[in-house]
């Protein structure tokens, strides 16, 4: 009788362990590709040699950011409220700006103008990101 209950207990343990193992597989870490994607670094740092040998410049390589995200993070502060005479996001406010030509808008955004600091306070934005953000702003007000 004792023997029987030991066997029954062991069988129960096996059933529980099997069920636990089956449950655990629901939280499997995924394929190797999925794991690599999850733990991939956000950006890569590459040290670039400049024309002047021996001198080096550091460039951060990362995916370009979304223009709307850049606008919301950096530009909205002034352009939503008109701080310091920043053109509000309306067609009327932007018409004379747009009339200057897109290249002027790119240049003033990159270099700054009046109360607007260079890069519109996005100091780590690339020129490409700033241009895309200007495009996005111009499209948004039309
Ligand atoms: C600190 C406030 C401030 C922030 C932040 C800011 N701007 Fe401006 N922006 C201004 C002001 C003020 C002007 C008007 C400058 C003038 O005409 O003297 C302006 C003008 C502009 C113009 C028109 C330039 C022209 O030549 O007429 C563009 C384009 C522009 N901003 C884009 C941006 C973008 C893109 C960002 C974010 C990356 C940004 N701004 C962030 C204050 C700001």
Tally of alpha and pi helices: 6
Derived from helix and strand composition plus strand pairing, the structural class reads mainly alpha
How large, in whole angstroms, is the Cα Rg?
29 Å
Oligomer: single chain
Q: Provide the domain count.
A: 2
Average pLDDT confidence is 83
Distance between the termini: 87 Å
| Ligand species | heme C
CATH architectural arrangement of the largest domain:
Orthogonal Bundle
Q: What characteristic shape results from the CA principal axes?
A: elongated
Q: Give the SSE string.
A: HHEEHHHH
Number of strands: 2
Q: What percentage of residues falls in helices of 4 or more residues?
A: 40-55%
CATH homologous superfamily assignment of the largest domain = Cytochrome c-like domain
- CATH fold type of the largest domain: Cytochrome Bc1 Complex, Chain D, domain 2
- Tell me what portion of residues adopts beta-strand conformation: 5-15%
CATH class of the largest domain: Mainly Alpha
Low-confidence stretches: none
